[in-house]
Amino acid sequence: MAPSLNTDPPSQTQKKKSRTKWLLLLCLLLVATGTASYLLYSGKLSSVTAGQLQTYLKSFQTDSDQQAQTLSSDSTAASATATKKSTAFEEGLEAYRLSQFAIAFEKFTQAALENHPEAFYFLGRMHQNGEHVSKQYDLAFKNYTKGVAAGDVKANYGLGQLYRGGLGVKKNVKKAYALEQVALPAIQARADSNQYFWATRLGTAYSEGLMNLPVNHEKAFHYSSIGAQQDYASAEYNVGVAYQKGQGVKKDEKAAFTWFQRAAKDGFAKAIHNLGYMYANGLGVKKNEAEAFNMYMLGAERELEKSQYSLALAFELGKGVEKDKEWASIWYQKLAKKGNTDAIMRLAYLHYNAYLYPDPNLPDVQDLKKALKWFEVAGNKGVGKALTQLGFIYYNDFEVPQDMPTAIKWFRKAAAQGEHIAQAQLGYFYLEGKGVEKDFQQAAQWFKKAADQNNAFAQNHLANMYYYGKGIPVSSMSAITLWRKAALQGNSDARNMLWKLGFEVPSAPSKTAAN
């Protein structure tokens, strides 16, 4: 059963554009120094927002915190060395549960100096995830290794994660499985003893099929619930996802929303983002785009890429905030620097569309050169649609001189990645001899590749080639079959041919397709 919370989030009013820009600019400046979270929660930004963002998270706080259970010694032969009692370690574990990472890191360091075996694992994890400290996979590896040497077999799990993801070491999934198998019995024992951290890790393993365990959503929910009932934010988030997706438990969006609230109270970024998504779509809560925007802003400040992307999209489309393409561009560029291809494509189209439909108030956005730059960046990262778009720009953009060799170069790259629009365009070039020598066989080959992906333009042209025997043997049946497929997509040329030949023409196309 989902926990009940007596406090509801305060209603949100639309912020003025200038106030929103001020807050976002300050967040952008503070993200690099890691001080934005402190300012948001310490009240130093209250004069800007009247406490809207701050109060939202505070409203989820509960009146009491459950104490984390003291870890018992490992029962496996591989960890026969008894785990040392350590007040510092226990204090670190409690602080970690509450997402108080600065305190946790200090206590775990103190415990490690006392040679507490399990402290090394948590120090490694904090270096791996960038919790209070910057991500340093080499230090994560060293601490996990020290943990294993000190007798904590569970530290093998941390090493396994590094090898599984290729984090600071050469990726080796087979080795990751072997290390995780060594750790599994001890993790299972701790989880069955209701120890919040390891129960949550085991729940994640069952959810994602890690540690060579079969995917089992019921067990995943069971173990995640152990951590969630002890107010561990990561587990609360996992339980929320289970309710949201109906995995291991009956789907309940209201329960999901409540569990995400609980995880958000400790600043858990993924939970904050999911609250934004649920507000944006009215899932488990009344739709509120302004509140969704606030959640995305909080998630973005915590460097969560999904939130940063959603925030940029909100600015671009005017969802929950006044439309502002300049701010959209700022956030897309922040993501583009991280190599986020979705953001790169949005940024490219943002500039391209502004160039097609000029706005005198957006001189920095309506820039064709910037559009071409970002399309090329995306194309070089393997985004086929970007390559196709570049091909069309150099082929028939009204302000870019036609450059057929360059256009064909980009279309070929896109076609090689399976982009059916580019394949169809190459077929057309070979059919008409545009930029290349006429070659009906080449045209038919490219049209067939695109037609097999249900491209109506290619289906119609390939049908014509079958009907008239251009580059391929005559086949009226093949032609009629292809015309029917194209006609069902609304291709007017195909519909006309069927009508002229006396065949039944689909009365209502299932979807509109460009000719």
UniProtKB/TrEMBL annotation:
UniProt keyword terms in alphabetical order: Membrane, Transmembrane, Transmembrane helix
Superkingdom assignment: Bacteria
InterPro entries tied to this protein: Sel1-like, Sel1_AlgK, TPR-like_helical_dom_sf
Entry annotated with the keyword Cytoplasm: no
Record's keyword annotation contains Transmembrane: yes
SMART domains: SEL1 (SM00671)
Transmembrane segments: 22-41
Protein name: Tetratricopeptide repeat protein
